[in-house]
Amino acid sequence: MKRAAKQPGSPASGKKQRAPRRNVAGAEGDSKHSASAMKRAAKQPGSPASGKKQRAPRRNVAGAEGDSKHSALKLLIANRGEIAVRIIRACREMGIGTVAVYSEVDRLAPHVMMADEAHLIGPATARESYLSLERLLAAARISGAQLIHPGYGFLAENPEFAERVEQEGLTWVGPPASAIRLMGSKTASRRLAEEAGAPLIPGMMEPVADVVELERFVDEHGLPVLLKAVAGGGGKGMRRVDERTELGAALERARSEGRAYFGDDRVYAERLIDQPRHVEVQVVADLYGAAVAVGERECSLQRRHQKVLEECPSPAVTPEIRERLFAAALSIVRAAAYHSIGTVEFLLAPDGSVYFLEMNTRLQVEHPVTEAVYGVDLVREQIRIALGEPLSWKQEQLIPRGHAIECRIYAEDPFHNFAPSPGRITYLRRPAGPGVRVDSGVLAGSTVPLDYDPMLAKLVVWGEDRSTAVARLRRALSEYCVGGIATTLSLFRPLVRLPEFATASFHTGFLDELLASQRVEELQSSGESAAAEVAAIAAACLATLAAGRLPGDPFSHAGAEGWWEEGLRLLHGRFPR
Known about the structure:
Blueprint: H1 31-43, E1 74-77, H2 81-94, E2 97-103, H3 110-114, E3 117-122, H4 133-143, E4 147-149, H5 159-167, E5 171-172, H6 177-184, H7 186-195, H8 211-221, E6 225-233, E7 236-241, H9 247-262, E8 267-271, E9 277-285, E10 291-303, E11 306-312, H10 319-335, E12 340-348, E13 354-360, H11 367-374, H12 378-386, E14 403-410, E15 412-413, E16 419-420, E17 423-424, E18 427-429, E19 436-440, E20 447-448, E21 455-463, H13 466-479, E22 481-483, H14 489-495, H15 499-502, H16 510-516, H17 519-546, H18 562-574
Parallel strand pairs: 1-2, 1-4, 2-3, 4-5
Antiparallel strand pairs: 6-7, 6-8, 9-10, 9-12, 10-11, 11-14, 12-13, 14-21, 15-16, 17-20, 18-22, 19-21
């Protein structure tokens, strides 16, 4: 595949540039639209195309395989990594042309190579590239894209970006800005959930004014309490308080984190539910009032409130609890006048009580487990809804089948405080086989930068039941090998063999408690042993491949060396012929 066209360092740059690559995969794209898009871009003030002669971008790729009614459309993905790749794949199946954006460190990233055309939007610093509204919108003008998909993270839940997209006359692939703004405020979303009749954790409906008000809340509800940033999300801006004397300092720390992460230092308090599970409901709603719940997900395995492993369905949810979860989630969707893909999150207490937590107004990282169990394409549905098409399913048509589990593979060292591990991936072997899916944003030879979220890929397995899925996950993790950098694979391999995982006996604090305990040494030694075995097998494979290629080859195995036989035994045990 040809390298993505190089663009100047900024959409506003006047430097001479090459036009985006032509699409050579199909002939059914709208060539009139491709040429006119570049003409329109050339007329934009401050555009890189202004006054410069360019080639038109490639015509839409999907050809005879895609949906011809979408063949004149072009979608810009305002993101990077595995989610950009995922969106490109959905567009390709729909017959929609794709536009990638990239920073200087992402020039050779897979999403850049896969898209029909690609535009450089700035240096590695996120605020000058993937977080720059102006540069993203300029790239949309230049490319002639009619739709913008934000993915997750970056600007996905930024109502100002959604508004600017629509002001430009483009289609925002996501919920309305009003719903993003409403549900993005933790206090406002709690008020809406209460009005919708959803169960709430006892807590404040307005930001705390001072420590005196916080002390009054503790007098009424007791300790421990959880302080949360009003604009928070992703587990950031949260502080547990167990002692009354800690209230003042905890309030200041929570405000400081809210200001640093979200530009908003407002904080509110909730009663802390002890050892809950984190369960979320996938919702989908169209522009015409139809809404469905596409199952629930178990997200209790977390590190510092950040999810690391998810499942569908939740092994702790009974049919009666599921009915309550779905009813609460859909009541919130309707009360918020919501349309698009979204996720309503709940805490599930040990006694079976459920409490509304928050709503994520975007596609979730963990959406593939829902797709595996329900046999749906959530990204495709999200795009269809944005185009004004009705919901594809009715609630009674959504029948779950089997069980799916996802591991988030990060470039982090889990046994050294999850330190980032940037660098070049020198070796990459992905697992395969029945029921195994890998959504990846890297290749062998890719360089992992320090500038962004360190997620490399998502490993998803499916089985006819949970025990089958767990066995398949163990097998897939044993096959997965990433060389050159540290990854969380070394944590997942021993973690999924713990008895607590086999029986799903965990809660949101389980992993943090495990990592703080003496059992972490057992996990580490087990993980290192598995990694060493994978490395040994890889070395044996390379030696075996080299054997006999040259006269007098010193690696020849004519004498049936003992080490070679042992290597074959290990290799065939892992990957049977």
